Structures are given as structure tokens and as C-alpha cells.
Amino acid sequence: MIKWDLFQGCKGWFNMHKSINMIHHINKMKTKNHMIISIHAEKAFDKIQHPFKIETLKKIAIEGKYLKIIKPILAVTNPQLISLSVDKN
């Protein structure tokens, strides 16, 4: 499940409440194959090129399945909250 810009334009407290609800829902699920990645890098990384961000992640040992998940998130101009189903195999 991927939801791009799920809470864009909402107040901070509303985003936090929705995030907590999503975490609570995932914790109650029997299959624990979800993760939440929250990145708010709207201004911080605007001027840094995408390949540089990916190479930096590789240098700190973020690779394989997790790098494949993070790449499209960094490519979006305004990612805020994305829920992903991850196959643990």
C-alpha cells in the first residue's frame, strides 16, 4: 500500500494523529510486514541531486530492498507519509 501525499496541506496535529492511528493499525495486524517511512524533506533536499542522495545512502549501508523503497520516495518533490507493505522474503 503506497499513499503519496497522504496528509499534505493538513495541520501538524492532524498529521500526527493520523500517523499514530496508522502505527496502531499496523501493530494490531497479525502479519507484521509493513513499515512506515516518514520523510519531510520539501526544502532541505531541493538543491541536492538525486544520485548524490542515493550514493550517500549506500555509503551508510542502506541498500537492497530498503534502498529500492527509499529511491522513489526521494524522487517525489513532496513526500510526507507513505505506508508500504514489505515482503520479508
Attribute tags:
single chain, mainly alpha, two-stranded antiparallel sheet, 2 strands, disordered N terminus, Reverse transcriptase domain-containing protein
Write the layout of secondary structure elements.
Layout (H helix, E strand, L loop, with lengths): L11 H17 L5 E4 L12 H10 L5 H11 L6 E4 L4
Antiparallel strand pairs: 1-2
Helix pairs in contact: 2-3
Summarize the structure in words.
This protein has 89 residues and is mainly α. The chain has one domain (12-85). 43% of the residues lie in helices and 9% in strands. It is built from 3 helices and 2 strands; from the N terminus they run αβααβ. It has helices at residues 12-28, 50-59, 65-75; strands at 34-37, 82-85. Strands 1-2 form a two-stranded antiparallel sheet. α2 runs antiparallel to α3 (65-75). The longest helix is centred in the N-terminal third of the chain and has 17 residues, at 12-28. Mean pLDDT is 66; it is low at 1-5. It comes from Equus caballus. This is Reverse transcriptase domain-containing protein.
